[in-house]
Specification:
Strand 1 and strand 2 form a beta hairpin. By secondary structure, the protein is mainly alpha-helical. The chain folds into 2 domains: 89 residues, no CATH class; 53 residues. The chain is 45% helix and 7% strand. The chain has a 3-stranded antiparallel beta sheet with strand order 1-2-3.
Length: 166
């Protein structure tokens, strides 16, 4: 899911009786229904519940995003700081070295929350999950967009060539 979708989840999105989480994507208005299994279900069951279905699942994230009129920049920056603290990303500075300032192109190689979408697509496809299932799970509108999110590593390519040798 996109960071905005996660931050704006409420108990209305959760159906514990049928073990599913439902939402509609912002960009394409695609409905997504995810089964609640494993760690996700355990996490949801550990959260304080409410009789008011409009109660956010993560109140702090919800307040940040709604307070910024749906923008997720602040949450995204907090996630980037966590990645930096974990040693997975270089610290972000606001020094202008490219002459393009903050409005310049992003460094596509930097890890971000959005990187998780790319990883999820790639891992699902590497595990042999059909492209159409991955596309529906992630909420991509087309196979072309889904393909853009697919990154095949050398290990997966090696496994494929091993199968050819049989």
């Amino acid at each position: 899911m996109e960071l905005r979708h996660l931050a704006l989840l409420t108990w209305a999105n959760v159906d514990l009786q049928h073990n599913r989480l439902s939402l509609v994507t912002r960009k394409t208005r695609t409905p997504i229904v995810l089964p609640l299994t494993g760690g996700l279900k355990e996490h949801l069951l550990s959260l304080p519940t409410s009789d008011d279905l409009s109660t956010p699942l993560h109140e702090r994230a919800y307040r940040i995003v709604t307070g910024q009129h749906g923008r997720t920049g602040s949450l995204s920056n907090q996630f980037a700081q966590l990645l930096t603290q974990a040693g997975l990303r270089e610290p972000t500075t606001h020094e202008v070295t490219t002459g393009k300032g903050r409005g310049g192109p992003r460094n596509g190689g930097e890890l971000s929350f959005h990187s998780l979408r790319h990883s999820a697509v790639s891992l699902l496809k590497a595990a042999g999950i059909p492209h159409s299932t991955v596309q529906a799970l992630i909420g991509h509108e087309s196979a072309a967009i889904s393909q853009h999110y697919t990154h095949t590593d050398q290990e997966v390519i090696g496994q494929a060539t091993e199968k050819l040798a049989l």
